[in-house]
Amino acid sequence: MDTANHHLAVQTRRVRRQRRVRGKLHGTPERPRLAVFRSSKHIYAQLVNDENATTLAQASTMDPEIKAQVKYGGNKAAAAVVGRVVAERAKQAGIDKVCFDRRSYKYHGRVEALAQAAREAGIQF
């Protein structure tokens, strides 16, 4: 298989996984969707109300507050900090229950670290 076709196949499988996960989730104002995105150097989390397509709270390793706490944004320690901060911001917005959207990522590594830190900070999912 040449490189272009391989890349297309991988991308197609990733999109199918993402749609399968997202099809079972729907964020509401009372229980928004905690959407996670990870790149090689950073991790992002946001609480989304899908009914009117608004972001209620967000945190990422790009935030100055978090950037000061972590040396590198692409590891589990940074993901845990993002999880705690997004949970604190959710509490300030009056949110204590969410549905977790892991996109096409396995619940493993940085995604798991973010989720566990958010749970420990008081968010239920």
From TrEMBL:
<keyword id="KW-0699">rRNA-binding</keyword>
<keyword id="KW-0687">Ribonucleoprotein</keyword>
<dbReference type="GO" id="GO:0008097">
    <property type="term" value="F:5S rRNA binding"/>
</dbReference>
<comment type="similarity">
    <text>Belongs to the universal ribosomal protein uL18 family.</text>
</comment>
<dbReference type="InterPro" id="IPR005484">
    <property type="entry name" value="Ribosomal_uL18_bac/plant/anim"/>
</dbReference>
<dbReference type="InterPro" id="IPR057268">
    <property type="entry name" value="Ribosomal_L18"/>
</dbReference>
<protein>
    <recommendedName>
        <fullName>Large ribosomal subunit protein uL18</fullName>
    </recommendedName>
</protein>
<dbReference type="InterPro" id="IPR004389">
    <property type="entry name" value="Ribosomal_uL18_bac-type"/>
</dbReference>
<dbReference type="GO" id="GO:0003735">
    <property type="term" value="F:structural constituent of ribosome"/>
</dbReference>
<keyword id="KW-0689">Ribosomal protein</keyword>
<dbReference type="GO" id="GO:0006412">
    <property type="term" value="P:translation"/>
</dbReference>
<dbReference type="GO" id="GO:0022625">
    <property type="term" value="C:cytosolic large ribosomal subunit"/>
</dbReference>
<comment type="subunit">
    <text>Part of the 50S ribosomal subunit; part of the 5S rRNA/L5/L18/L25 subcomplex. Contacts the 5S and 23S rRNAs.</text>
</comment>
<comment type="function">
    <text>This is one of the proteins that bind and probably mediate the attachment of the 5S RNA into the large ribosomal subunit, where it forms part of the central protuberance.</text>
</comment>
<keyword id="KW-0694">RNA-binding</keyword>
<dbReference type="Pfam" id="PF00861">
    <property type="entry name" value="Ribosomal_L18p"/>
</dbReference>
